[in-house]
Specification:
Number of strands: 5
Radius of gyration: 17 Å
Oligomer: single chain
CATH architecture: 3-Layer(aba) Sandwich
Number of helices: 7
Order of helices and strands: HEHEHHEHEHEH
Shape: globular
Helix content: 25-40%
Distance between the termini: 35 Å
CATH superfamily: NADH Oxidase
Largest sheet: 5 strands, antiparallel
Structural class: alpha+beta
């Protein structure tokens, strides 16, 4: 499938069908693709904590999602918690920030990786939803995520139970300024 086709087809899915298509090997290929994304000084601080067991998925949903994302993640086949290692990307070796963004670069780099992850999943016929409404403390405790990792988002993965309409997108002239 061509990139333009993937971009046209991919949607944030909030209703999943029961399915068993997704495998750990598939998720591994999504992460392998994500690793190819650029990162600040090639520091590669993004991390993925992938939950695939039914019991652990249910525990994560119940303990760390509000009612909105609890509803949105019914029947998901995996949940990938995305993090980045703090105080590396955007920092000198002595710990001083390279510019005013500091750890913002870790979030930026993880976002670049997550975009590639989402597109690779779409190419494989796996749908996704990136969720920022979550309880980071509950996630950290349940998955034993180290304190030096900042929890960013949770990506739901599975097979779509609906095909939402393509949302309106701005046109190029609304968001670009050439000099």
């Amino acid at each position: 499938m061509e990139l333009d086709q993937i971009l046209e087809k991919r949607r944030s899915i909030r209703k999943y069908a029961k399915g068993d298509k997704l495998t750990a090997d598939m998720v591994r290929t999504f992460v392998e693709a994500a690793i190819e994304a650029p990162s600040w000084k090639n520091t590669e601080t993004a991390r993925y904590h992938v939950v695939m067991s039914y019991e652990k998925i249910q525990a994560l949903r119940e303990k760390s999602f509000g009612s909105w994302n609890l509803q949105n993640t019914e029947n998901v086949q995996a949940l990938a918690v995305t993090t980045f290692v703090k105080d590396i990307a955007g920092f000198q070796k002595d710990g001083t920030p390279d510019n005013e963004l500091g750890n913002g670069w870790g979030i930026y780099d993880a976002g670049l990786q997550n975009s590639v992850f989402l597109l690779k999943a779409a190419e494989a016929g796996i749908d996704t939803l990136v969720m920022g409404i979550r309880d980071a403390s509950a996630i950290r405790e349940l998955l034993e995520i180290p304190e030096n990792e900042e929890i960013i988002s949770v990506i739901a993965l599975g097979e779509r139970g609906e095909t939402p309409e393509k949302p309106h997108r701005r046109i190029v002239d609304d968001i670009v300024k050439f000099y």
